[in-house]
Amino acid sequence: INSVSHNDWASFTGRMPVVGLGTWKSAPGQVKQAVLAALDCGYRHIDCAAAYSNEQEVGEALACRVGPGKALRREDLFITSKLWNTKHHPEDVEEACRTSLAHLGLSFLDLYLMHWPMAFQRGKELMPRREDGSICYSDVHYRDTWAAMESLVDKGLVKAIGLSNFNARQTDDIITTARHKPVVNQVECHPYLSQTDLVSHCRSVAVCVTAYSPLGSGDRPWACPDEPSVLQDPALVAMAKRHQRTPAQLILRWNVQRGVVCIPKSVTPSRIRENLQVFDFSLSEDDMKLMETLNRNERFIIPTVENGKRVWRDAEHPHFPFNDPY
């Protein structure tokens, strides 16, 4: 599988496949079979997170295929997990990482990301709320959380650490003080949100960008009926017919050609297989330019809908990342 190497990954001995399997929104009873299907057709990169509440089932799949006498060795795989917002207190970071490792049945992670720059109140609840339904925030700064994550590298629990949903300013803020610099920033990225400025900035500071929801996350639970569908965009559909490929394959190929890692989610074996079949064709310069014209700066991963309108749940948090232009 084609891979993206990274000059700044001095402490990282592996390689990151540019197409992986995303596991967000994969329901219990489905994610194990999805991971098995992915591993069996050639995926070697699996993206996980504690907040997805399915890491134990991912671990069951890994146990079926990885280890002595089985199809794969641990060193063949690239496994990512993420630290959730309620675990930002430095004293909670290692325990959270070890919990993910236990659920996944692993002794180390290839990559561990800070899921969001925003800290929530410590505790066992994923979404600690007040009586009025608002989220209980914490004043822990992401720089302090990062310092605790660096110790995970020192202890060999993770090979590398990175960010998710950080803007350019916050990414630079981490880099300025880091002992172990972030190697990845994982963000929403698809043709309607091309993230060109953020991708360019991250490249300039030796941070690789991973695209989550690269196909537009049509199954997001808060989707409104009148919202556009990336996969049904007429220009994209026409281009796909011309290439005799699926719109999803064109999107993934577009990102691969511009050096962005993709982690499309699917639980359908045929689609899982199709999403990996993007290395036997290429897009022309004109195709790439056309893909860029689809950008609308349209974010879909907005976790609250009120009266049919998309509303940012955490916009009042002091470390909310999307008030900056990129």
Any key phrases for this structure?
single chain, 33% helix, alpha/beta, 10 helices, two-stranded antiparallel ribbon
Summarize the structure.
This protein is of the alpha/beta class.
Low-confidence blocks of residues: 4-14
Give the C-alpha Rg: 19 Å
Major β-sheet, in short?
Answer: 8 strands, parallel
Number of helices: 10
* Overall helicity: 25-40%
- Would you list the SSEs in sequence order as H and E? EEEHEHEHEHEHEHEHHEHHEE
End-to-end separation: 30 Å
Number of strands: 12
Mean pLDDT: 92
- Label the overall shape: globular
* Biggest sheet: strand arrangement: 3-4-5-6-7-8-9-10
Structural class label: alpha/beta
Tell me what portion of residues adopts beta-strand conformation: 5-15%
Give an overview in words.
- The chain is α/β, with parallel strands linked by helices and 326 residues long.
- It has ten helices and twelve strands.
- The strands form three sheets. An eight-stranded parallel sheet has the order 3-4-5-6-7-8-9-10, with helices on one face. Strands 1-2 form a two-stranded antiparallel ribbon. The protein has a two-stranded antiparallel ribbon with strand order 11-12.
- Helix 1 crosses helix 9 (269-276) and helix 3 crosses helix 4 (142-154).
